[in-house]
Structures are given as C-alpha cells and as structure tokens.
Specification:
Keywords: ATP-binding, Helicase, Hydrolase, Nucleotide-binding. Helix content is about 30%, strand content about 20%. By secondary structure, it is an alpha/beta fold. The chain has three domains: about 200 residues, P-loop containing nucleotide triphosphate hydrolases (Rossmann fold), CATH 3.40.50.300; about 70 residues; about 130 residues, no CATH class.
Length: about 450
C-alpha cells in the first residue's frame, strides 16, 4: 500500500488551544504532566499561533494591575466544618467577582463557579438569590420542566393557534415582523424576556421580515426551536459540577474546594476539565491544608490568603422541587404532577385549585402545610388553597424535622402545563380537564 499511497505519515495531533491564555494553559498542562501515556501528556496543549505574541495573561495582563492575568489561588483557613468552609469560599468567590467587575464590564453569563459536588454550590446559590444576581443551576437541567411544557411557551403558542378555533375560521397568518413582535411582547419575567428576545432575533435571522407565514408553520418552528430542552440558560452565573461543564467555556472560571479527596487519575482529569473551561481568568479556591492538585501548579501561579467570617444567611438552602425521577441517584420525583387536576369530593375544590394556580406569578409567596396520604405529604397553598403537593414517595427529612413549618418560606419558582391526552394521566384526570397548570415550588430553608 505504501508504494501506491506513499510513506505512512506521522499522526497530526491537535494540540492547539484556541480558548485560554498562556497562563491558564501552562497551569493545566502542569497538572497532568505526570499522567504517563496520555495524549495531552505526550503532546502538551499549546496556545494557538495567532495568540503567541500576546502577553501570557491575555488582556488581563494590563487590565488587572494586581493579578496581571495570572492564575490565582485563594487560600482560606482550613479550620471549621464543611458547611463553614463552603460558606467562606462563597464569600471569597463573590469578593473576586466584585473586584473583577470593578475593572471591566463583565456579564454574569461569562462567569462559571464549578465544584466537585453540588453541595459546595449552595452558599453561592444563596449569595445570588440574596443579591438579585441571575444564575443558572446546572443540576436543575435534568430535573426541571421542559421548555415546551412551560406556561410561558404554551401561552405563546396559544396566541398563534387558539385551542378552540371555530369551524371554518380562517387560519391566522403573521408577517415575520409581526411574529417577532408577538414573541417580544409576552408578559413574562426577566429570564423569559431575554429568552424570547433571542428567539425573535433568531427567527428573523432565518426568515424574511415581510413575508406572511401561516400560524401552523410558526407553531412548528417554535417547537423545533425549543426541541426537548429542559431549561434555558439564563444571563446569569453558571453554577455546576465539573461533570456538568464539559464542552462549555466561560471567560471567568472559579473552581471551589471540597470533595477533591481521591488521587485517582479520573479525578485529576476532572479537575483539569474544570480548569480548561476558562478563557480569560482562572481562580482556584483552597481550604484544605494539602490540596491534591493545586500544589502541582507552576511557580508563576499567584497565591493570596484571605479570611472571612461565616455569614449565616449564606447557609440558607434554595431548593426547587424536581418533576422527574433520577434512576442513577435512585431518587424519585418530588412533585405530584397530577394533583391539582384530580377529581375531588367537592367539585368546587377542583375549580378553586385551578383558578388559584392560574393567578400565580413567578416569585409569588406560598404557604406550606402537611396533608395528603396519612398527612405525610406537603401541600403548597395560596390563600389557603392547595396548588401543589409533594409526591408520595419523595422524602424531605429537612422538612420532617421542622416543628413549625411557618419557618420555611416557599415561592412559586416556575409554571408548567400538562395535558390529559398524555396516556399516563388519562385514567386519573377527569375528561372535562384537558389541560392544567403545574406549580413548581422553591423551598427556602434556613439552617
């Protein structure tokens, strides 16, 4: 074969990094340099040729006189419980975010805070909630509601194609501009405003503004656009584990300490993945005396020591109840999806529940009470009317331990829509209820 095709060529390894600064690449390479036989060890990643003439710290070499674009390790006290350490490292991350924002206009969506496990992220979520900072919690993606089932999306579709279109009524048509304006004019909250604004832009990018489009075509376009996604990335800080961030990149990445206990190569690679998500700045938190990976970083890595006092409010847990079970984690769904639409002894109770849920908006406060099967479930109410209930098999030890449930705040986090035509509901939902709202509560649990 070689006589026909010529000599066998040496493999061309793809070792250019088109994402990160030289400082980030050097630190990441140092982390895995002892992993014998691995491709990236034998052929280290290097910065792409177009960037080789730039400073090692990229644009932050000049922009940040204190840090000068170096990888920063923030060393925190190693004393205290895991919860206290998580509380304090959240403060360290928040302080560095504020410091960077004082130097440049940084969008929250360009920031990622990564961890080994989800538990370390809870104080960061609390900080975002308490400071009205938008964020995206990666773990909610697989447990959250599908975009096509959200109340906001369904309402938009129904304005295109009403449920009860009269026989013989001519199908509506919309110009591209009219359709885009319909999308932008939806009465929705902040995250949805951004999402619909982007949806309108994408439609006009693909289609002409003055052409008339049948409503059915536009409906199909919307369903194809959202696909089977379960959550929209908001314009907020990405909070997720190193596993959840594969394939993504962010200008500013923070990697939390905690849970990096195994010296296994798979853990080493995972920490490497977290580091290499960074484009412009990389900040690593250390609150253990001997961090398995940080000690391997090059000398030019900057180390600073910080100290903070525990803030009790950051120990507050913000927990959105999940709709779906997780077989890998052996965790059942937390919400009884059909509760609000099931027949009751008193028909007026059913109507009251549906009407009460219809009036709710994202962020509205709910009350919590025990109810359901053997009084072991939890119901979420507005004006004394239950609009959501936990699933029978779901466990809530943090609620069971509370004697006074009024200490637990609850608010409506999101809304979905379910249809009786789905075969799983056909036998349990009365025929007169063809669709119903689904209220998804968020628990706010003080520690």
């Amino acid at each position: 074969m070689s006589k026909i095709w010529g000599p066998v060529q040496q493999p061309d390894f793809l070792t250019f990094n088109y994402r990160s600064t030289q400082n980030i690449i050097t630190a990441a390479n140092r982390l895995i340099q002892d992993m014998g036989g691995r491709l990236k060890t034998l052929h280290p990643i290097v910065i792409n040729p177009e960037k080789q003439h730039r400073p090692n710290g990229g644009i932050w070499s000049e922009r940040d006189g204190e840090r000068q674009g170096r990888v920063r390790v923030v060393k925190l006290p190693s004393q205290g419980s895991r919860q206290q350490k998580n509380n304090i490292q959240a403060q360290a991350v928040a302080a560095e975010i504020r410091r960077l924002q004082a130097l440049a206009d940084i969008e929250y969506r360009s920031i990622a805070v990564l961890s080994r496990n989800n538990g370390e992220l809870k104080p960061m979520q609390a900080w975002c909630e308490q400071n009205n900072i938008p964020y995206f919690l990666a773990k909610d993606r697989k447990h959250g509601i599908r975009l096509r089932h959200t109340r906001e999306f369904v309402r938009l579709v129904e304005q295109l194609v009403p449920d009860k279109q009269q026989e013989g009524q001519k199908e509506k048509t919309f110009t591209g501009n009219e359709f885009a304006e319909l999308i932008r004019s939806q009465d929705v909250g902040g995250m949805w405003q951004d999402y619909f604004r982007q949806t309108a832009q994408d439609f006009l990018r693909e289609n002409t503004a003055d052409t008339g489009y049948p409503a059915a075509f536009l409906k199909n376009w919307l369903y194809e656009y959202v696909g089977n996604e379960s959550e929209s990335r908001s314009d907020g800080i990405f909070l997720g584990t190193a596993h959840s961030v594969k394939g993504l990149e962010f200008k500013h990445v923070f990697v939390l300490d905690g849970g990096w206990n195994s010296a296994d190569e798979s853990e080493q690679r995972l920490y490497y993945v977290a580091m290499t998500r960074a484009i412009e700045t990389l900040t690593l938190i250390q609150n253990t005396p001997q961090h398995l990976w940080i000690g391997r970083l090059p000398e030019e890595t900057e180390c600073v020591e910080r100290s903070y006092t525990v803030l009790p409010e950051l120990d507050t847990e913000y927990r959105t109840l999940s709709l779906y079970s997780d077989k890998k984690e052996n965790r059942p769904a937390e919400l009884d999806i059909g509760f609000i639409a099931r027949e009751t002894r008193n028909a007026s109770d059913l109507i009251s529940r549906l009407e009460a849920a219809k009036k709710l908006k994202v962020g509205d406060e709910l009350t919590i009470r025990r109810g359901g099967w053997q009084n072991k479930q939890y119901e979420f109410c507005t004006d004394g009317i239950a609009v959501a209930r936990t699933a029978k098999n779901a466990a809530f030890p943090e609620l069971d331990a509370v004697s006074d449930l009024s200490a637990i705040r609850v608010r409506a986090a999101a809304f979905g829509v379910r249809y009786r035509e789905d075969e799983q509901y056909t036998d349990n939902i009365p025929k007169k209820i063809q669709k119903w709202p689904l209220v998804i509560p968020m628990l706010i649990i003080p520690k």
